[in-house]
Design a protein that fits this description.
- The protein is mainly α.
- Helix 1 crosses helix 2, helix 1 packs parallel to helix 3 and helix 5 crosses helix 6.
- The chain is elongated.
- The mean pLDDT is 83.
Length: 114
Amino acid sequence: MQKCGAIPERKDVLGDHLYSLVVSLNVTADEAAKVTGMLLEMGNNEVLRILQDKKLLQVQVKAAQGALKRRSDYKSFDNEELAEKLYQRVEDQEQDNCAKITGKLLYTVALMKG
């Protein structure tokens, strides 16, 4: 296990230390802030493990970046495009109720975007 440096204990200090390590992995400042926030949600014990293990840090940062990209890709759909794609997919599986099912799915998506 490769050490990433001294282990801070307070949440704000953990965040500052984690942020500096994320930035050192050639992540933009904006993305590093988002990734750091995501990693801090894992809890202090997991963050401490990440701070102690450079390989684990790299894996977790890559996973967080992937989640951010998927979220960005999802948000890039406009409602009409999303409705068309959903309708086509649902129609392939359930022709009789595809409009009703698509409507329910779009309603759920709207609630999630909230």
